[in-house]
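Person: Please comment on this record:
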Amino acid sequence: MSIFVWVMMGIALWHFTVWVPDKFWGGIVGAFVAASLGAITAHAGPCTTAIAQFEQAVHQSAQNPGAGPMASQSIGAQLDRQPTPGSVKRAEERTQAAFAATLARAKRLDARGNRAGCTRALTAAKRMYNL
């Protein structure tokens, strides 16, 4: 969005100073209005920084073999049964999907400006992920 704002400022200044030299101040005011509108529409949500920091930590932990989404142990795993490769894979897929959905919910609530909701969803996502 900031690139758009700067391009619009450049076009406004160029247009009003080159083609219509007697309207220089109109170009300055137009550029200021365009920059202000761009800044207002680019406003970040209440949890944007926290979500970005968490995503950065998740990305950096990709090389760590112990890092990733985790879930609580099932009843079957607590009995004397051994997991099969298929059951382990299904459990990992379900856990990854639940983590992705929780993080997506945090982003959605952040975009709506719901600070309490996005904080709760982000906290839940942090609890699900082993860094």
About this structure: The chain has a mean pLDDT of 80. Helices lie at 2-19, 24-41, 48-60, 75-78, 85-112, 115-128. Residues 48-130 form one domain. Residues 85-112 form the longest helix (28 residues).
